Amino acid sequence: VLNKRIAVLAGDGIGPEVCQEAVRVLKAVSEKFGHEFTFDRQPMGACAIEATGDPLPDQTLEACYLADAILLGAIGDPKYDNNPAAKVRPEQGLLKLRKSLGLYANIRPVTAYEVLLPYSPLKDARIAGADMLFFRELTGGIYFGEKGRIADSAYDHCTYSRFEIARIAHLAFKAAQNRRGKLTLVDKANVLETSRLWREVVQEISPSYPDVAVDYLFVDNAAMQLILNPKQFDVILTENMFGDILSDEASVIAGSLGLLPSASVGETAALFEPIHGSYPQAKGKNIANPIAMILSAAMMLEHFGLQQEADLVRRSVQVALDKKIVTQDLTPPTLAYSTEQVGAFIAYCV
Amino acid sequence: VLNKRIAVLAGDGIGPEVCQEAVRVLKAVSEKFGHEFTFDRQPMGACAIEATGDPLPDQTLEACYLADAILLGAIGDPKYDNNPAAKVRPEQGLLKLRKSLGLYANIRPVTAYEVLLPYSPLKDARIAGADMLFFRELTGGIYFGEKGRIADSAYDHCTYSRFEIARIAHLAFKAAQNRRGKLTLVDKANVLETSRLWREVVQEISPSYPDVAVDYLFVDNAAMQLILNPKQFDVILTENMFGDILSDEASVIAGSLGLLPSASVGETAALFEPIHGSYPQAKGKNIANPIAMILSAAMMLEHFGLQQEADLVRRSVQVALDKKIVTQDLTPPTLAYSTEQVGAFIAYCV
Ligand SMILES: CC(C)[C@H](C(=O)O)[C@@H](O)C(=O)O
Ligand SMILES: CC(C)[C@H](C(=O)O)[C@@H](O)C(=O)O
């Protein structure tokens, strides 16, 4: 029986709606197993800018430090999107949160769910059976290097240290040991010095994991292989910018962003969020798919060591999918259930 | 009637075989129209390293300076691929060639050929009708910034000046005017300062092309949209690294790399090459598809102002496709023609 404090950053757009369903499912889990989860709701993103002028108010960051884990819905608002030069933007809050909490590894499973095959842009035979796990470095590289303007130019510096590479590489190797024993490092070692360091460090670490086969792929080739033959991949390890691009690419080949969860972990903190965005067009309509958020909560349970509970949530999601208790992204509108109905059904199955 | 000197860098793997067919077609064109094309064959890539220790020998670079245009087959050899730290690599020759000749714009049409639809990893309805044109900046950004090691770290600097952005943006806007009037800038302006400069410059230039509608897409979203709905794109403009990844991604959705040409142009020089690589497994087997190389030669003819000649080559290629005079990548092996047969047929149609 565990006692856990969970910071809930519902965020913008459909974030609050899907968070509510994840919390509902977590409450069902805690009742069933006798855990005590307390939920600490805090503003972040565009809604926090409206309220306080800051996408990540101190109080929110404080609550995240104090929490055992963080659930994040989604952040972002179109109002900021076409104004990248705006002084304050929702994404700044997210980047600051990652950096402040040291969430250096973004972990994303991409699985070709049977039920999604008709929705995949890929032909069934290409995607059926694909099952990969991304490890994207999240607090280094060009995202966090020095950036600025000089005269008529702009610059962004990309830096990686051996330490930054090694710590996420170890996580990825360990994950590969528990899966199919294959790790693919994606880089641009034929052009970038940082990529050459990534290869060096991974090559050095590799002998400690003799049961993991390592291969190396240039990022342009990886962008092709993900579509040509997604089944070839098991664990994919890559740096921040490449991971941003490739994990999003991989997500859509699976058929819907609406089922895919993610975890971002560091030495002490851990954050769980669906990979989809704030989907502002659907806000307040009770049509958003809550499953990615619920599966993110399942990853959190696993992170707490609650394997049985996590499995139960995943099985309950599978029941909903099998019985077609799903939102309109996965079924014709006349047969669709609402966000709340799907969440309630999954909580009920728990 | 024109007199043109063409440097031919056949390169490695299947490069020499496909180059030979492009030259064959160009000879047919020059005979028919009375032009005088002289071909100056020079080593580059892995073969040049073997011969001289240098992937881009001075004599080759010299020949390129003197030429009116350059045809490049393909470079690269697996022997160098898994050894990115090797002091001399074929890619260095390519990067040096681009920089020395100032080939700042890489232009890649990606078209969903009818005949390729069965080979596309995408479902037909997604890809049929897609027709986009990439403008990838080719001599700036993180490829050519300062790079190195400090203590336990490696770094790569990404820099762009207004001038570098503006010159390729103007090319892209002009191309959009002659197409469907839409230009999409792909960047990561929510994170990168260089991307914010790209947006600024494109926004400044945009009013000079009132007939072109501009939109902006973050690179992670672009990686998804290319697969979800490739038909939405007309001209895509982006920086060097993003262009490397996205144009390769886009190429595979079209069904085969074997049909897709590219041009790299600067103020004075111009280079034409297929987008496929050196495909070492097929080397010497007379099975490589020469069409991407032949269509690259057609882009060269257009660059010379020989529109009629370029159109004739393209129509001849279409005849080969329609009559299924194609290599084994596009037809069952028993019905396949050889590289030479396909080239000879297209030359004959000219
Ligand atoms: C919003 C943006 C800064 C962020 C990123 O690029 O990391 C997002 O795309 C993501 O992948 O979480
Ligand atoms: C070989 C490599 C350096 C090159 C690049 O990254 O530019 C290639 O991938 C390309 O796109 O022409």
From TrEMBL, chains A, B:
Broad EC category: oxidoreductase
Subunit comment: Homodimer.
Gene name of this polypeptide: leuB
Classification via NCBIfam families: leuB (TIGR00169)
Cofactor(s) listed in the protein's UniProt record: Mn(2+); Mg(2+)
Keywords: Amino-acid biosynthesis, Branched-chain amino acid biosynthesis, Cytoplasm, Leucine biosynthesis, Magnesium, Manganese, Metal-binding, NAD, Oxidoreductase
Protein name as it appears in the record: 3-isopropylmalate dehydrogenase
Pfam family, one: Iso_dh
Pathway involvement of the protein, from the record: Amino-acid biosynthesis; L-leucine biosynthesis; L-leucine from 3-methyl-2-oxobutanoate: step 3/4
Protein EC: 1.1.1.85
Binding residues for substrate: 98, 108, 136, 220
Any one Gene Ontology BP term: L-leucine biosynthetic process
GO MF terms, alphabetically ordered: 3-isopropylmalate dehydrogenase activity; magnesium ion binding; NAD binding
SUPFAM superfamilies referenced in this protein's UniProt entry, alphabetically: Isocitrate/Isopropylmalate dehydrogenase-like
Cofactor binding summary note: Binds 1 Mg(2+) or Mn(2+) ion per subunit.
HAMAP family: LeuB_type1
Domain Isopropylmalate dehydrogenase-like: start-end pairs: 5-346
Chain sites annotated for binding Mg(2+): 220, 244, 248
Species in which this protein is naturally found: Pontibacter actiniarum
Record carries keyword Oxidoreductase: yes
